[in-house]
Amino acid sequence: MSDVLETIKSRRSIRKYKSDMVPQDKLGKIIEAGTYAATGMGKQSPIIIAVTNKELRDKLSAMNAKVMGVNSDPFYGAPVVLIVLADKSRPTYVYDGSLVMGNLMLEAEAQGIGSCWIHRAKEEFESEEGKELLKSLGIEGDYEGIGHCVLGYTDGPAPKAAPRKDSYVYYVK
Question: Sorted alphabetically, which Gene3D superfamilies does this protein's record hold (predicted)?
Answer without folding.
Answer: NADH Oxidase
